[in-house]
Gibberellin 2-beta-dioxygenase 8-like
Amino acid sequence: SSSSPQLKPNFSFPQTGNIKNTSRFHNFCRKPTGNIENTTMTDSNPPLFHQYELLLQSKAQLQLLNNGNQQINSVMGECQLPLIDLTGLESSNEKERRACSREIFGASTEWGFFQVINHGIRTELLSRMSKEQMKLFGVPFEKKSTSGILDHSYRWGTPTATHPNQFSWSEAFHIPLTKVSEAACYGEFINLREVMEELATAMSKLARSLAGVLVECLGHRKEIFDDICDESTCFLRLNHYPICPFPGDVSGLVPHTDSDFLTILHQDRSGGLQLMKGSQWVAVNPNPEALVVNIGDLLQAWSNDTYKSVKHRVVANSMRERYSIAYFLCPSYHSPIGSCRQPSPYRHFTFAEYRKQVRDDVEKIGYKIGLSKFRLVNINTNSNSNN
Ligand SMILES: O=C(O)CCC(=O)C(=O)O
Ligand SMILES: [Fe+2]
């Protein structure tokens, strides 16, 4: 029919109006600041929802999307991700504290991911947050993308994507800690402020405590990250994964490693988070009592690869939507990342350099290369780059 997309060997999306950009896919996903004539918008669905559906009506197009391979979310393994009870960390008994530290150390070296219970963040706070988060994402797309709330941090999909494999079927707000307390940041969503502030404080404390354990395990003062992490770079991200009509063809969130020291994540009960273990994707089964912790690129670098920053993703779901909230522990821009011990396999770099490199790569080639760009010796472990 005339509304079907054109089939072309080089995948391309229909034009969406007069937004100027070199990447057509980029045009397609970005905020509707221009005049997007072809876009049908319903109340809360981002415009891509409709366009993408049209696009995927063609079977040949589907094959192009998958390069003729199996559907992208089909590989799965059973996950026995470590579940660590953090009660031990606060124990007056040194043996118990050490046993808990050892578990955290083991999980961070072997998995780069673990879940924690008795983490000190009240369930009531997490459910209040979830409620507010649902209200926030529930407003029309137009409003989320143009009202400037939460520091203008709304993003739908992957604005930099140049290929559908790089596109995430999700929307997010990305809020620097420095903005969390600013009333002006919330507009009419002022109820969100109190809960965001409480959560940011609680997650920050937990992240610092876990980072402290990990640096102590490598013979350093547990405060060293406190000295270099500050509010200007740490942030909270609210994620929402709407129901996806073609879950085999796009990811909820494309495979990536986190560009921070450490991430704390609260996921709802929908499932879909997976991590790379060996060469298999394994599911991180939702545990309502637990928070998910993962090591980021910078801690892998600081630890001379002792701790692993592993690739993870969220698969799209055609039945259930999903919400999550993540706290990212980051160093201030100009602090050197350093190393637990010399010689380091990485050259000296700051967080500012790392972010710039990641941004440049994403802009030029469509994806993040990550830590391997900073390696001095070219040892290819194949476990920490994105592709
Ligand atoms: O939503 C999730 O479970 C994962 C989120 C994530 O990986 C991220 O925000 O970096
Ligand atoms: Fe992540």
Confidence is low (pLDDT under 50) at residues 1-43, 379-387. The pocket of 2-oxoglutaric acid (ligand 1) is lined by residues 237, 239, 253, 258, 265, 267, 273, 312, 314, 324, 326 (CB under 6 Å). The first strand starts at residue 83 and ends at 85. The domain at 78-341 is CATH 2.60.120.330 (Jelly Rolls).
